[in-house]
Amino acid sequence: xxxxxxxxxxxxxxxxxxxxxxxxxxxxxxxxxxxxxxxxxxxxxxxxxxxxxxxxxxxxxxxxxxxxxxxxxxxxxxxxxxxxxxxxxxxxxxxxxxxxxxxxxxxxxxxxxxxxxxxxxxxxxxxxxxxxxxxxxxxxxxxxxxxxxxxxxxxxxxxxxxxxxxxxxxxxxxxxxxxxxxxxxxxxxxxxxxxxxxx
Length: 199
Fold this sequence. Notes:
Number of helices: 3
Strand order of the largest sheet: 1-2-7-9-8-4-5-3-6
Helix content: 25-40%
Shape: globular
CATH class: Alpha Beta
Strand content: 25-35%
Structural class: alpha+beta
Order of helices and strands: HEEEHEEEEHEE
Radius of gyration: 18 Å
């Protein structure tokens, strides 16, 4: 009986944490893109220039993701800066792409109020950069975004782009919008591919 109560209590705490994470996600700043075309869960978007903090790690996507996330989080939450350093709000999504075989880059988009000149200095392993404005095709899906899920959705997006007459202008990127405690069915994930534009 006691074990059942402990299990129920644990499930209740986990559910409460998930609800809190979902509520927080609704208040999290996201890039202000413009939708040019929508077809179900696929969109073509124009993104403005974005200021990011980025880091790269090697290994599996999952292990590189964990290491990169911890370092970027330490930067924005002022854990590796002098006491009293300015904390930077977490935004969504977290971006990840494979820049070479087994080498993964993760980017945190900085809140829109920052420029490269106004961001706190970053440690030597973290690069602050401005991504230029760009056009992206995106497909949205829920779930835990396993490697198989990402590959399947990338193939689907490439097929859609081909049928729509859109040329890719680079490799795929992955976008993750939710904290790990959010249940898979409630998560928002995306695969994005840059779209070539005339001129």
